[in-house]
Amino acid sequence: MSTWMDRLGRVGVWTSDLRNEDHAGAAAAAAELASLGYKTLWTPGGAGGDVMADVERALDAAPGAVIATGILNIWRHEPADVGRWWRGLGEARQARVMLGLGISHSLLIGDAYAKPVATMSAYLDKLDAEGVQKDRRCLAALAPRMLQLAATRTAGSHPYLTTPEHTAQARAAMGPGALLAPEQGVILETDPARAREKGAASLALYMRLPNYVNNWRRLGFSEEDVTTPSDKLVDAIFAWGTPQQIKARIDEHVAAGADHVCIQVISGERLPGGDLAGLRAACRELAPVLL
After folding, report:
1. DSSP summary character for residue 183
2. What is the pLDDT of residues 79-116, one digit of tens each?
3. Mean of all residue pLDDT scores within the chain
4. What's 13's domain CATH number?
């Protein structure tokens, strides 16, 4: 069994609801997810905001869990600020944080966005100087050069919106030993039309972001697949059906080289402030099968 699987668990949870404005509700969700046996909870930070405060609240709410960022947008957070926060955590809490870092997207950053690998490498140089340990950070890497950077300069990679085929390619690119922790969207819906409708709706934003679209092209999807999106793409990106069918997809990632898979529950609900109740119910239903 890999060291990373021991530390992070085989299956974790990726959810924006840990950053819910209802801090008490988010804390209760984090506590329940950890009590169910999800050892690592991932929370996004691509849009910026006070991600680090949200991480600290989750650390308090789920004292036995690792809290990971998926991701911290390097354009939104100066390395000196990250380093200052990191040192303030202290060793015990640092041991429970995985700092996922991402280069974001040109559409969101604008004209400043250029040379992603070189920019990320320079950012990591500054984190080194700030004392942020290599094995407590990972990269949202998809393409070969960023995967290689992840393997040499961080613990490894946290790919998003990918497939087991990409997991196998990422493992080959990074080699053994590097962390590989893909996100996997899951839809607890057995009706194909409803499941695919929810998946396609969830992809709407990402269809505009070249980093993801180019990665799907590299995986062999056609122009029609990546612009519609097609049922083929939705079925490849999302695991839908029964808990047992969802487990089968996670097993595929692990067989392809993943150390840890973090599930993102796709409910299809558009509720103000998120869907804490739906998240908790889905993770409760999945836990006996996945953990």
Report:
1. E
2. 999 999 999 999 999 999 999 999 998 877 888 888 99
3. 95
4. 3.20.20.30
Q: Is the dihedral of CA 252, 168, 41, 189 positive or negative?
A: negative
Classify strands 137-139 and 179-180 as parallel, antiparallel or unpaired: unpaired
What is the domain count for the chain? 1
Structure tokens at 127: 């984190």
DSSP 112: T
Quote the CA–CA distance of 222 and 44 in Å, as a whole number: 29
> Would you say 41 and 15 are in contact if contact means Cβ atoms under 8 Å apart?
yes
Dihedral through CA 56, CA 136, CA 182, CA 7, nearest 10?
A: -90
Measured between alpha carbons, how far is residue 229 from residues 7, 198, 240 in Å? 36, 12, 16
Q: Which amino acid type is present at position 171?
A: R
Pairing of strands 66-73, 40-45: parallel
List, in order, residues 6 or more apart from 46 with CB less than 8 Å away.
Answer: 71, 73, 102, 104, 108
Contacts of 59 (CB under 8 A, 6+ apart): 67, 93, 96, 97
Strand order, beta sheet including 261-265: 179-180, 156-157, 137-139, 97-102, 66-73, 40-45, 11-14, 261-265, 183-187, 238-240
Q: Is 25 exposed, middle or buried (0-12, 13-18, 19+ CB in 10 A)?
A: middle
Instruction: Give the rounded distance of the alpha carbon of 217 from its chain centre.
Output: 21
Q: Which domain holds residue 54?
A: 3-290
The region of weakest confidence among 44-53, 150-159, 232-241 is 44-53
User: What is the DSSP track for 213-260?
Assistant: HHHHHHTT--HHHHHTT-HHHHHHHEEESSHHHHHHHHHHHHHHT-S-
* DSSP bridge partners of 98: 68
pTM score of the predicted model = 0.96
Cβ neighbour number for residue 42 with a 10 Å cutoff: 29
Type of residue at 134: K
